[in-house]
Amino acid sequence: MQIQKEDMEINEDIVIVGAGVAGLATSLALHRLGVRSIVLESSESLRTTGFALALWTNAWRALDALGVGDSLRQRSLRFTRFQAFSADSGLPTAEISLEANMKPVDYDSRCIKRQEIVETLEKELPPGTIKYSSHVVSIEEESGLVKLVHLADKTVLRTKVLIGCDGVNSKVAKWMGLPKPVDANRSAIRGYVEYPEAHGFEPKFCAYFGGVRFGFLPCDDKSLYWFCTFTPSAVDYDEKIEGSPTKMKQFVLSLASNVSKEAYNILERSSLDSLYCAKLKLRAPWDILKRDNIVKNNTCLVGDALHPMTPDIGQGGCSALEDSVVLARCISEAIFLRKSIKVEKLEEGDDELYTRIKVGLEKYAKERRWRIFSLISTSYLVGLAQESNGKVISYLREKFLAQFTIETMLRMGDFNCGKLLK
Fold first, then answer.
1. Among residues 290, 27, 362, which one has the least CA distance to residue 354?
2. What keyword terms does UniProt attach to this protein (predicted)?
């Protein structure tokens, strides 16, 4: 006779779904402000897979607010310049010093291994914050603001606040009714190279712009991250190669005929198990302008769950860190009755705390809406210009667009999400 396990119900004030960069940063930001949360992670342990993230000044300001910026700086190289080349001719088209006097005092740009970011964030959290092997199967609403999160092991979590940090294919976003992210009609292949000794490359960001786009970024003295983005229909791409690392590598090398010899050697040196291919997706920018698509009845979204974007200005991970700091501050202000959160009127039967949190989350949506809209739109348009074909666009790219792209990346990265103050 089979005994059916009964549902076990647990009360938690704040539940975060997903222990990636966004989920861990959000939980840590709340912890810094004295607010407890738990993080649900479907895998059995911390997900350290993935390559590296280019982090611009806005990300470092957020990491400093979280109290982990200096620790990560010690394990990375600060970029001294950004150099652009034509992917069609291989000739240099633009260069900007990243040490010029015109930069903000706290300007910083580096490339960090994803593993180091998530491990650093995880170590700062109280023991037991992350609940591994917690697979969300469904979400339902009870009495308006209370959410019931059902897990595969029959556990049911009752929560006042539900935060979706569960990536591009977010279950929380789907439950909120957001349209699916749209296909950008482009793809990316990424790789990572480790050297037994110091690689000797300058701490600079090298990018090749053209019908195909390459980027090469040193993370530390012994490792480099690279990416290749392209439009499949323009390069006779066969999706079947995604199952064959050998063919993926051959495909990337075939596109790299005009990169420098040292850049080509980086691609050639990449091990087959370091290659990863993915279609690029983005949230339609106009979907972000609707308040209920960011926050709905004390449920909200952070990072890729809210705003997947193309990687053309390097702001996916950076903006997720911004989200985490802003959201934690808004929730903390609501819980501890700080002056910036004002509840005009309670409806009959409303719980005051629930209502304050609702107002706090709406403040988060208001603060983030236009920033996210501009990041998604700018990234898509920059990518479209850099990878489009045609004589006119190629001429403009050679003469003006490379410089414009670099300046745009720096400008979009000069954003301050603020500090975490108790």
1. 362
2. Monooxygenase, Oxidoreductase
